[in-house]
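Researcher: Quick test of sequence recovery. Tokens follow.
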């Protein structure tokens, strides 16, 4: 069953319908996904157990899976079939006899190249060939202009020269290959809504590669070797919702890197060894709901770093080198979760605490998850713990430790050891 529902099935098919939260909501591919769901159900019935001895007809799906076949077995009558599933065999080439199918799925075989166009229906819509050994293509593969969905993740591709000359792809996944460049015919794929490029060796992004992709909603570029995102790289991606750029450890950002992303809702920049964020970097992102900056080397953030992010609901910056609680100035009125675990913050400024409390934020700091109206500070290996809005168990030294606890909410904090903090809540 693991070969039937792999990571992409969850992150590819279903992610296209998710809502941003993590993060992941449009219903544009419902019809196609309904067919795929039927396919998965059919495969599930035979994916476990002994080797199959023949194909099985299940309504409009012809299932020929897990038979260790090196060539196509005799096909049983299946007059309504438009989908053929060849998963989990030993095929080294796409066999003849598949011209009746608009969906051909042959992942987890031993294919070494993309098939001859003559072996497939000229109106084929979906071709699923992930988890093979594909490193090249037949010369006429590029004539398949009807393709809408092409899955080639975890193969051995080094370029995208195989893409159709007249590209009508809506969903393309080439993650987990050995791509070093995006130059070539990719820029002609103006109908794309989903593009998976993660886990490759991409070092740069051509300035025009996304210039025609105004319909693109999901772009995955994480775990590459991208050195920079020049100004205007994404300027034409006005429909983009998700952008992942994490695990590009040498990446350099500029103030215009995210220009044009007016509908972006999810941005992941974690694990990039970022030491600073250019002024105005997030200004073009008024619809951003989740921002992940974890596992970088950020030490300080200017007060206006997150200005204009009024739709932001989750801000995650765990495992940086911050020494001060960032001030959320002119932003983040919708913030619900603020994660600053594993930083070096000792004592937040009154201004910073005031900016956090204003949003009634669910906050994670120093290992604690604290709910609205409460900011709990538990800076392990530091001198001070601060509790905002906690009960009256504060105001003195904790017995057996050198740490000081105190409240700042008015009922508990009034008249206690640190009355100067009362103004934070009162304001």
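Model:
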């Amino acid at each position: 069953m693991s070969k039937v529902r792999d990571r992409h099935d969850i992150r590819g098919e279903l992610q296209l319908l998710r809502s941003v939260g993590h993060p992941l909501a449009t219903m544009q591919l419902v019809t196609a996904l309904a067919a795929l769901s039927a396919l998965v159900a059919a495969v599930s019935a035979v994916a476990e157990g002994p080797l199959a001895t023949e194909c099985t007809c299940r309504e409009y799906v012809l299932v020929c899976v897990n038979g260790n076949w090196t060539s196509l077995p005799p096909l049983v009558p299946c007059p309504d079939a438009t989908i053929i599933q060849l998963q989990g065999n030993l095929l080294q080439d796409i066999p003849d006899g598949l011209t009746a199918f608009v969906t051909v799925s042959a992942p987890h075989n031993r294919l070494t190249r993309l098939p001859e166009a003559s072996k497939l229906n000229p109106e084929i819509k979906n071709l699923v060939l992930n988890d093979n050994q594909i490193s090249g293509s037949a010369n006429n593969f590029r004539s398949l202009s009807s393709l809408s969905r092409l899955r080639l993740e975890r193969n051995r591709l080094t370029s995208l020269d195989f893409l159709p000359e007249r590209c009508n792809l809506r969903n393309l996944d080439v993650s987990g290959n050995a791509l070093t460049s995006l130059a070539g015919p990719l820029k002609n794929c103006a109908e794309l809504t989903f593009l998976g490029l993660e886990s490759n060796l991409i070092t740069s992004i051509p300035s025009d590669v996304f210039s025609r992709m105004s319909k693109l909603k999901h772009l995955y570029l994480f775990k590459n070797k991208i050195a920079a995102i020049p100004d205007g790289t994404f300027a034409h991606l006005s429909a983009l919702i998700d952008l992942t750029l994490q695990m590009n450890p040498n990446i350099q950002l500029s103030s215009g890197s995210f220009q044009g992303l007016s509908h972006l809702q999810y941005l992941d920049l974690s694990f990039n060894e970022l030491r600073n964020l250019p002024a105005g970097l997030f200004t073009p992102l008024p619809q951003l709901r989740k921002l992940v900056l974890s596992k970088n080397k950020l030490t300080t953030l200017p007060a206006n770093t997150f200005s204009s992010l009024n739709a932001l609901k989750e801000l995650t910056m765990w495992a940086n080198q911050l020494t001060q609680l960032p001030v959320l100035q002119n932003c983040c009125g919708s913030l619900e979760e603020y994660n600053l675990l594993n930083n070096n913050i000792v004592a937040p400024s009154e201004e910073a605490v005031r900016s956090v409390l204003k949003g009634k934020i669910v906050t994670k700091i120093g290992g604690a998850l604290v709910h609205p109206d409460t900011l709990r500070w538990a800076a392990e290996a530091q001198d001070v713990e601060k509790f905002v809005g906690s009960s009256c168990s504060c105001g003195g030294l904790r017995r057996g430790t050198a740490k000081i606890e105190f409240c700042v909410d008015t009922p508990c904090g009034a008249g206690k050891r640190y009355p100067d903090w009362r103004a934070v809540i009162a304001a």
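The chain has a mean pLDDT of 77.
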